[in-house]
Amino acid sequence: MTLVQFLAIGSVILILIKTISDFQKKKITLSIFLFWLSLWLVVIIVVAQPRITLPLAKILGVERGMDVTVYFSILFIFFALFRIVTTLEKTKWEITEIVRHLSLKNSKKK
Amino acid sequence: MNLVVIIPAYNEEERIGQVIRGVKKYTGNIIVIDDGSKDKTSQIALENGAKKVYRHLINRGLGGAFGTGLKAAILEKADIFVTLDADGQHNPDEIPQLLKPIVEGKADIVIGSRFLKSQPIPLFRRVGNYFFNLITFFFFGIWSTDSQSGMRAFNKKVAENLETLTTGMEVSSEIIKEIKFNRFKLKEVPIKVIYTPYSLSKGQGLIPGIKTLIKLIILKLTK
């Protein structure tokens, strides 16, 4: 195993520990926990054995297995970003609804 | 005909009094939505004749204030609704011409357009507005010569069916989206805009403009 692989796996294990701890403290739901758990396990496997991505690379017409991993990672980051922004917008709207409700209950008259 | 004028305001203590005094010639039903101002906007609005002031505890943006104004005006049993800016850029004496197409049944919603008659408007504003007109048309399918105008009039049917979910400046484009979705009859009438260094400083600059654009993209993709 190269140094880069060792560092990457070490970092992912730390993130994994944090994810497990968040789940134990009930900060995240079971579905979210399972999603991150499976994602990080896949990352560990791909980093430890990059050759396993070769068949997928061949199917997709990409030369190197690592390239496929990078492409999918970028796609995932964009998707995650989009989800975060839309969730944030929804939360902002919910806050607005609360603020609106309070203001409609407490109007000031001349 | 019960006319209610809705004025969303954020830190507008300098101009709100003058705007309300101008509107009072046409109706006493003036509702101010104080969007979490840190100055005396609420107090000055009441002193100058606003019928009611609804105060947001925290600033929620133009869309948030517009939505509150709409609900408040419906509670007032309004038949016709007018919105205008609190920074003094709109002339309240143009309210009658805004109402005319609605009273005559020729429109459900009327937008006061700054670009239907020739008048001095800073180039940056002109280009920015045209850009948002294009984006609004491209995303929501209706061409408006002033999609970002804050001076509008609409009838009860529009007020009861308008469903705006955005909280910021992008609400103006969202209203256009709703016009298309609900098939409201839209008309535009020319209005004169009073640009002063004060009102120009209150408008949408480059960075808020980019934020509005991003929110419009999200609106297009998610709703």
Main features:
heterodimer; A: 110 residues; mainly alpha; elongated; B: 223 residues; alpha/beta; Spore Coat Polysaccharide Biosynthesis Protein SpsA, Chain A; seven-stranded mixed β-sheet; 9 helices; 7 strands
CATH topology descriptor of chain B: Spore Coat Polysaccharide Biosynthesis Protein SpsA, Chain A
How is the biggest beta sheet of chain B arranged?
Answer: 7 strands, mixed
- Beta-strand content bin of chain A: under 5%
CA distance, first residue to last residue of chain A? 76 Å
pLDDT averaged residue by residue of chain A: 88
Structural class of chain B: alpha/beta
Q: Please, how many helices of chain B?
A: 9
CATH class placement of chain B: Alpha Beta
Count up the domains of chain A.
Answer: 1
Strand order of the largest sheet of chain B: 3-2-1-4-6-5-7
Number of strands of chain A: 1
Task: Tell me, briefly, the overall form of chain A.
Answer: elongated
Q: What's the architecture of chain B, going by CATH?
A: Alpha-Beta Complex
Distance between the termini of chain B: 34 Å
Rg of chain A: 21 Å
Quaternary state, please?
heterodimer
Low-confidence runs of at least 5 consecutive residues of chain B: none
Structural class of chain A: mainly alpha
The number of helical elements of chain A comes to 4
Assign a percent range to the helix content of chain B.
40-55%
